[in-house]
Design brief:
176 residues, 4 helices, 5 strands, elongated
Length: 176
């Protein structure tokens, strides 16, 4: 804030513009403490309440949209799991010239399987770190040879039973 002080003009200097300009004195020091004090005061309770209200409104609008989709998210995860196991099975076949049998199962991707067909060039460390359960907590079903191709990987969906529709439908590598 700039302060201007006007001194009382002398009688002999009064009347000329030059003399009036000489009468105006501007102090050398400008008081900057007032704006700095306002910057250091922090937030008021009302400002904090407004921010909390805005966050609450946004949360009330977004949370129902997200909470209505857990079953859809589980289906997407199951499809991604199946695709990664399918890729690991293809690598297994490249190294060992065939897919693991149904008896050897998906565990053949983690630990060297025993039994027939014996893997000729099983990769140390495996093809997956672990075989996960489906998003509903059940094991994936592996069938080799499969009904639809060289193998089938199946999740029975939300209901855990064959067939079904919607979120209860079975998921496999052929599911879209």
């Amino acid at each position: 804030m700039l302060r201007v002080q006007v001194q009382r003009p002398d009688k002999k200097l009064a009347g000329t513009a030059k003399n009036v300009m000489n009468q105006i004195s501007i102090p050398n020091k400008v008081n900057l403490s007032a704006p700095l004090a306002r910057l250091n005061r922090g937030f008021t309770l009302i400002e904090i309440m407004v921010v909390v209200a805005i966050i609450a409104i946004l949360g009330a609008a977004v949370v129902p949209l997200v909470m209505d989709r857990p079953d859809q998210a589980r289906q997407v995860k199951a499809k991604q799991d199946i695709k990664s196991m399918e890729a690991a099975l293809d690598l297994y076949r490249l190294d060992n010239f065939n897919y693991p049998s149904t008896d050897q199962g998906l565990e053949a991707l983690v630990q060297k399987p025993t039994g027939d067909p014996e893997p000729a060039n099983w990769k140390d460390g495996g093809y997956l770190k672990q075989v996960s359960k489906d998003p509903w907590g059940r094991d994936y079903i592996y069938i080799s040879p499969g009904e639809t191709g060289d193998f089938d990987i199946i999740s029975l969906g939300r209901d855990g039973q064959e067939g079904g529709s919607g979120y209860d439908s079975d998921l496999s590598q052929l599911s879209e």
